[in-house]
Amino acid sequence: MSIEQHVWGMTHEGEAVILYTLRNDNGCEIQVCNIGATLVSVKSPDRNGEIADVILGYKDFESYWNDPACSGKSVGRVANRIAGGKMTVGGKDYNLETNNGPNHLHGGSHGFGTKLWESRVETNRVVFSLLSEDGDAGYPGEVAVEAAYDLDEDNNICITYVARSNALTPINLTNHTYWNLSGENSGDILSHELHLNCSNVLEMNEVQIPTGKLLNVEGTPMDFRSSFRRFADGIDSEFNHIKDFKGYDHFFVLDDWKQNILSEVGELRDSKSGRKVTVLSSQAGAMVYTGNWLEGGCPVTKSGGRYKDYAGVAIECQNYPDAINHDNFPSVLLNPDETYCQKIVFRMGTF
């Protein structure tokens, strides 16, 4: 395994934007960048050994500053939505930016995905670090966070998030990579098939906030358990607002989840290329988003075009959305004497 680094560009303040390339001996290569601790590229062989970049991304580093899709980014301080941008922490009420309709999304327009992180190489991994000051984006407490990327010889891409705070604060970190296993410029992912180890999904209201109720997926377009299901087969369903959201944008609850235990969330595969990615996580579930609103909002792509809706699917391993406002959800609160540590693994392969 080798790691190369080069300066991708410079910020207006004269700080270096660094692009790291991690390459193993089996034809798998990833690139990561210190803007947003972002996964920029994943190059993986198909069933015939042909290499393609299988995640969405952009032509130049400047585009990652203005990316409403959060492509490949590490998002926080709290990933996903907080209803009305309102929360109570330690008995004190906080009003956060509402940057997604009536809700706060992915830490706001100045969240972790918009920051230039510090970066370093540690033997066979790249580690990004960020200090989020007390009051950053409206959140309480100073938080020190790290995002480490590893690539091994078995084609496992491992992301480890670690955070510590000096005060009680919510934290929920995830990686927002969009997958297209046929190649990032190959069209839509509606023929991709997904299997999930998730028997329940959160019921959503019309503005994409959980009602607090869990819905059993059996017999619904959200049942990805017993066999692989194509996104195209359920994309127009009325069930749990799928059609209203223009596609899947829902949180699936991991079966038999145990805190701090790495478990298999599921597997995404593409019959055209024979590529697959198995997803493992220590988080309580995953948000599955089929790129319903990509068209018109993304910068110029790696291949020089523009992504259309459904060009990629994000499987965002994380805690429950809006958990800060639901006592029956797993807590997102981090105490000052605790360490937040979560892991996501993307295992590349073929079938």
Gap from first CA to last CA: 24 Å
Helix content: under 10%
* Number of helical segments with 4 or more residues: 0
Strand content: 35-45%
Uncertain spans, ≥5 residues at pLDDT below 50?
none
Classify the secondary structure makeup into a structural class. mainly beta
Report mean pLDDT, rounded to a whole number.
97
Strand order of the largest sheet: 11-12-13-14-28-24-23-18-21
- Element order, helices and strands? EEEEEEEEEEEEEEEEEEEEEEEEEEEE
Q: How would a textbook summarize the main sheet?
A: 9 strands, antiparallel
> Roughly how many Å is the radius of gyration?
19 Å
DSSP strand count: 28
Question: Judging from the principal axes of the Cα atoms, what is the shape?
Answer: globular
Element layout with pairings:
Elements: E1 2-10, E2 16-23, E3 29-33, E4 38-45, E5 51-53, E6 74-75, E7 81-82, E8 86-89, E9 92-95, E10 104-105, E11 118-122, E12 125-132, E13 143-151, E14 156-165, E15 169-170, E16 174-175, E17 178-179, E18 193-196, E19 200-204, E20 210-216, E21 229-230, E22 249-253, E23 263-269, E24 275-281, E25 285-289, E26 313-318, E27 333-334, E28 340-350
Antiparallel strand pairs: 1-2, 2-3, 3-4, 4-5, 6-16, 7-10, 8-9, 11-12, 12-13, 13-14, 14-28, 15-27, 17-26, 18-21, 18-23, 19-20, 19-22, 22-25, 23-24, 24-28, 25-26
Keywords, separated by commas or semicolons:
single chain, 351 residues, mainly beta, nine-stranded antiparallel beta sheet, six-stranded antiparallel beta sheet, globular
